[in-house]
Amino acid sequence: MTVAVAEETLNPYKIAQQQIDTAVAHLKLPEHVTQILKHPMRVLSVNFPVRMDDGTVQVFEGYRSQHNDAIGPTKGGIRFHPDVTLDEVKALSMWMSFKCGVVGLPYGGGKGGVICDPRKLSKGELERVSRAFMEAIADFVGPDKDIPAPDVYTTPQIMGWMMDTYSKMKGKYSPGVITGKPLIIGGSKGRNEATAQGCVYTILAALKDQHLPVQNATAAVQGFGNAGRIAARLLSEAGCKIVAISDSRGGIYDPNGLDIDQISNLKDNASILDYGESFVISNEALLELDVDILVPAALENVITAANADRIQAKIIAEAANGPTTPEADRVLFQKGIVVIPDVLANAGGVTVSYFEWVQNLMNYYWSEAEVLEKLETNMIQSYVAVRDLAKEHSTDLRTAAYMISIKRIAAAMEARGWV
Ligand SMILES: NC(=O)C1=CN([C@@H]2O[C@H](COP(=O)(O)OP(=O)(O)OC[C@H]3O[C@@H](n4cnc5c(N)ncnc54)[C@H](O)[C@@H]3O)[C@@H](O)[C@H]2O)C=CC1
Ligand SMILES: O=C(O)CCC(=O)C(=O)O
């Protein structure tokens, strides 16, 4: 079926605002409430100097956006990427609010980003950038205020450096200022796998709803980092056949199924493209494969008006934030493709970050089994609530997810007397 599409914006901030408009059309909300939700409450922009290995000083630019803290402190990752923009960080903070809302966490949304390419920094430079960024935002964040975490190209080690810098500045051990830390300094069991694990729980639930068997269900995964690599492994362990995988350099495709362990080895020691020249496929072509499950797990705006009509997957699980534009959403909905939206599909990460923060505040730590059990329960309950509301209002799952979150944030703002 060919579906006509209109001109579209690829600005993530404008996209987030459009998504809010789509959801509030189904809700009776005063206009000023919508206006509040369409903008972050606070944004900090910083420029900070870092001494490089060659002795020169480089000035880096970074941002932290706090979207809405009516329900609790803001929460969300920090991204290190050369293409970071202020509008992207604002949008990511808005998506965090709706994500925390849909899985019922006592948080609002926050997000940070630094314009840099960690792949071109030495370990020492990366540590100095991480510590200097934390120093620059230290008065803006805090365990009761705004709690960062990992995102694209940031790692548990970076979280550890940032926690250390913050703790030294405040003169007290403060593990609750940041999550996604190494286990030895207050990280939670299960956090490293949580984003992918949560995503896989929702995929399995969607397969069941679509009466599709898990065994040999075919899957293509774009992005091979924390979210994508672990999602590929967990899907494969669940019985699915991973036929395509990619990273920033390109992808590989084998309709007979890929060997995930071999690809993981290649990723760590060479390039996934070394799997074999005859298997190489572009990132764009990967998205259009005829598969049961497509998992975008890299960056924004990969499914747009330009390619939505050619997407053949039955289920799209957005491990990445913002991979699908509103125009593409409309096309996919008309084609009957189920899109498990980012705010639900990748909410496992922030859910276990919440568990980490709670454990830090209690100074009492849970087993991995306890973490995973709580995660699964929360993900499935949230999936069912979104699915049922979407059915009731004949909307896509994203709109239903936003409706749930927006109602919750609006109720909190009203209860606090803001509106
Ligand atoms: N790490 C987490 O806990 C969470 C991550 N996410 C989202 O998941 C997505 C991926 O993040 P992580 O896996 O954490 O990052 P990561 O830094 O661990 O991995 C990113 C991966 O994407 C690949 N990549 C980069 N540019 C690409 C491109 N143009 N095409 C294909 N692949 C490309 C990289 O090669 C790498 O394999 C992002 O959208 C992030 O916001 C969402 C929720 C939580
Ligand atoms: O773990 C967290 O607090 C947030 C992770 C994140 O940045 C995201 O869900 O997009």
TrEMBL record:
Query: Site positions for Important for catalysis, renumbered to this chain?
Result: 151
Keyword Mitochondrion present in the record's keywords: the answer is no
Tell me the active site: 111 (proton donor)
Instruction: Provide an example Pfam family for this protein.
Output: ELFV_dehydrog_N
List keywords of the entry alphabetically: NAD, Nucleotide-binding, Oxidoreductase
Q: What are its GO biological-process terms?
A: L-glutamate catabolic process
Which annotated residues bind NAD(+)? Answer: 195, 226
Is Oxidoreductase set as a keyword in this record? yes
Q: Which SUPFAM superfamilies match?
A: Aminoacid dehydrogenase-like, N-terminal domain, NAD(P)-binding Rossmann-fold domains
Positions bound to substrate: 75, 99, 353
Query: Organism's domain of life?
Result: Bacteria
- Entry's InterPro entries? Aminoacid_DH-like_N_sf (IPR046346), Glu/Leu/Phe/Val/Trp_DH (IPR006095), Glu/Leu/Phe/Val/Trp_DH_C (IPR006096), Glu/Leu/Phe/Val/Trp_DH_dimer (IPR006097), Glu/Leu/Phe/Val_DH_AS (IPR033524), Glu_DH (IPR014362), NAD(P)-bd_dom_sf (IPR036291), NAD_bind_Glu_DH (IPR033922)
The Glutamate/phenylalanine/leucine/valine/L-tryptophan dehydrogenase C-terminal domain covers 188-417
Q: Name one GO molecular function term.
A: nucleotide binding
Family recorded in the similarity comment:
Belongs to the Glu/Leu/Phe/Val dehydrogenases family.
PANTHER family xrefs: GLUTAMATE DEHYDROGENASE, GLUTAMATE DEHYDROGENASE 1, MITOCHONDRIAL
Q: What is this protein called?
A: Glutamate dehydrogenase
Which organism is the protein's source? Paenibacillus algorifonticola
